[in-house]
Amino acid sequence: MTTTPAHLRTALALTADGLPVLPLRAGKVPFGNCRVCARNACGGRPNMKTPGACTCPRPCHAWAAATTDPSVLRSREWVLAWREAAAVAYHPGGADLTVVDLDNEAALDWARETLPATRTVASTRGEHWIYQGAMQSVNGVRPGVDIKSRMAYARWLGPGTGIIAPLPAAVRALAVMEPAPARNASQTLTAPLRGGQGECRHRTPTYLERGIAMAEQRITEARSAIHTTVYRTFLAVLATHGGCGCLTDAHVARLFTAAQAKGETLRHCTDAWTNARTALGM
Hints:
Layout: H1 6-15, E1 21-25, E2 29-30, H2 70-73, H3 76-84, E3 87-90, E4 97-102, H4 105-114, E5 119-122, E6 127-132, E7 138-142, E8 145-148, E9 154-155, E10 165-166, H5 169-174, H6 205-221, H7 226-241, H8 249-261, H9 266-279
Parallel strand pairs: 6-10
Antiparallel strand pairs: 1-2, 1-3, 3-9, 4-6, 4-8, 5-6, 7-8
């Protein structure tokens, strides 16, 4: 009687919950491409029969190989891979999920101050925060923070604790690249900079203050891609604090000052702020 590999048993249990899974080798790396599919020549669509698509017998395309089909996982070729596997991974975007991978204490502090509570899973160096909703995957959106969703895989580390919350705008904003500068943007702080008049979500009077201080720090510590960092920081501040009337011109002036200290012009600051408001529909 053949024994089912332990990682395969885990994978089969996860597919019952709708998670597309795949095996990982030691070092959290996926199984390598075969010769036919080297450099993704087949288009990265495994186990398909359409012309030009991958027909490899083993899972050789990382996130694209993830599946919820038990018959594929139990096939002879996949069982061989599971016997060599060191871990189980899943494709978050394929299950309409996003994983915010927090890799150090500073990243965890930022998440606790900035993001809504959700399901958390302990990782080797930090935590995975899991949200409902898929988005673009981006690594290094800020120090120690990666976003894993579409076209990415995350290691299965257990069910975690807490209820999965909807994907917040603050996370989506991290992956947004800065658009072209707005035309005829004002170069003074007389433009409408305050948030709306929605319900205030600040838990304590220090919540907004900490958010602004962290945004200033993020801009100040940037060593490259200053334009993009400033825009993404403005976007994150507005996504988190722009829905009520607590965000004042004084707060915005602090952000502008931090950006200008890194070499940004007042014109660029105003353009970035206007574009961030437009992106969020404010």
